[in-house]
Amino acid sequence: MKAIQIDRYGGPEVLIRRDLPIPAPGPGDVLIRLAHAGINFMDIHTRQGKYAGSVTYPVRLPTTLGVEGAGEIAALGAGVDGFALGDRVAYCLHWGSYAEYAAVPAWQVVPVPGDVPLDLAAASMFHGLTAHYLAHDVGRLGPGVTCLVHAASGGIGQLLVQIASSLGATVFATTSTAAKAEIARARGATEAMLYADGGFADAVRDRTDGSGVDVVFDPIGRPTLRDSFRATRKRGLVVSFGTVGAAVTDLNPIELGEAGSLFLTRPRLADHLPDAATIRRRAADIFSGLASGSLSIGIAGRYRLDGVEEAHEALEERRMVGKPVLDLL
User: Fold this and answer.
1) For residue 240, what are the β-bridge partners?
2) What are the distances in angstroms from CA 276 to CA 110, 117, 260?
3) How far apart are CA 107 and CA 128, in angstroms?
4) Residue 185 maps to which CATH number?
5) Beta bridge partners of 175
6) Residues 102 and 64 in one domain
7) Structure confidence by residue, pLDDT tens digits, 205-252
8) Residue 134 lies in a domain
């Protein structure tokens, strides 16, 4: 099978195209013939070595990139129940989806309903399940709650705005350009503004009678985090769930006290997908929204395995609006 691997960390130049044997599913695994794979910042961070020392997401070189995919079951490992050959399935948080086949632990795999196309299933697992736990479990959004979603035109951002709005929360959003702000408004944001220069904090306070929002969702990091503190009400919550703009390495906890006794958390998806039942529950909610039209995911670009470098470069340069996918069939 064809696959994209890395055996060292670096830029797009370290991506290697290889012909590999089709993996055999071990006990408890299913072998999936992949139709599509999502392309995520996590893939870029994996390539760059940011997970080299991670306990939550351990990476061992060489590795096949890609942490989410969708396709059909091609073989079952020993002891697997509840799946059959040909079942349409999807998964996330298991490396190896930049390939034509992947062997995945069955507990991480979910069935894809017939009314959800496989490309949308592949595009929605990582981002959809992330937005789901952020809105429901971390932010605890609902009527009367105000929140600010940064990077609201991105894959997670668009879904988070939609879910937050559906739960009855008031959603403010930031983006990097005026055109992207229009996308955030179309997804349900009450108001969208640019995050450059930190002016969003003043704007949010103006629109909340000086108090700030209850929850800020910040995947950007250094360019926005301290201004996110300014945009948050006293004893409010700041959720730092990514650092696509650069990591904050000099934060003194006293800053949280000075900003209003804030709570700061850095959650990870793996800790909110502890078992098969939780994964299926979250995925079912996302798939139901896609099927009914209450959730929408824009495919930002389609790539083949020989175009992965281009996809990574576009994602790193933030030229993507929505979610890029690999077409593998």
Assistant:
1) 218
2) 8, 22, 39
3) 18
4) 3.40.50.720
5) 194
6) yes
7) 999 999 999 999 999 999 999 999 999 999 999 999 999 899 999 999
8) no
